[in-house]
């Protein structure tokens, strides 16, 4: 099966999982929370690529696990990613009126509801992961280990920490180690976690987990560079409002050819890291190639 076919199947699986979880909240929560769930749904179904959940499903396949079995973990990373975008767009942070070509959450629902929709998504993400225990497929110790990984990736040692440095760093401090530090935490940590969740859930040994971690770390930085290349190409893609300062982006420090070089090196590292799995890592390698060439 080619990448286009299974990736659209996996996106459909993720979309259906999201819909099912939202319906579960609708069924089990008071009717009065419906507008909050609507705000969660607005951002969850806002046209994201589902890149992180795809990674989780692809690693599962690489490890011989049915992707369907790790779906709650894949949804959990998409929930956390979505909350981070909602909060990132708020006036106190990036102050973006639009996201993926549509009004950002706070423009559509107001700041208070946007903050709460983000809070709910973050909290429910851990609920989704915890529910893996009910399946009896993964041992409680392995589910806890996966939870621990996601906490590190999403919290002060990962996404939130990276965002903190991004927000507080002065432009005069932009240099390659600083920019890398930010992206390893802000973007990379959740990408590494997306890859490693099935490894934790299945109790994969350390040597093989390290190979997957190398894949995820290289891909995480590659993803950010490809983002900066796209950003530099199209003014307006993530257009910033008038009061916005320069971002700690690779494009502040390198020209287009240098960025492309670094991107190619990182993609190469990612691909080599998962070659030992042979055909089973085809999806992980296809995703890396997708990042090298992505147009959106
Ligand atoms: C685009 O992802 C997003 C990133 C490259 C990560 C940006 C990180 C933040 C905004 C951190 C915010 C953190 C907090 C705590 C507020 P994508 O291209 O996969 O987006 P898509 O889902 O639209 O495809
Ligand atoms: Mg932003």
Task: Explain how this protein is built.
The chain has 296 residues and is mainly alpha-helical. It has one domain: Farnesyl Diphosphate Synthase, CATH 1.10.600.10. The protein contains twelve helices and two strands. It has a two-stranded antiparallel sheet. Strand 1 (98-99) and strand 2 form a beta hairpin. Helix 2 (34-44) crosses helix 6.
Question: In short, what is this structure?
Answer:
The chain is mostly helical and 296 residues long. The chain contains twelve helices and two strands.
CATH topology descriptor: Farnesyl Diphosphate Synthase
Largest sheet: 2 strands, antiparallel
List low-pLDDT spans.
237-243
Tell me the structural class.
Answer: mainly alpha
How many runs of DSSP E, i.e. beta strands? 2
Strand order of the largest sheet: 1-2
CATH homologous superfamily, by name?
A: Farnesyl Diphosphate Synthase
CATH architecture: Orthogonal Bundle
Distinct small molecules: farnesyl diphosphate, magnesium ion
The domain count comes to: 1
Query: What share of residues is helical?
Result: 55-70%
Gap from first CA to last CA: 23 Å
CATH class call: Mainly Alpha
Oligomer: single chain
Specify the overall morphology: globular
Overall pLDDT level: 94
String of helices and strands: HHHHEEHHHHHHHH
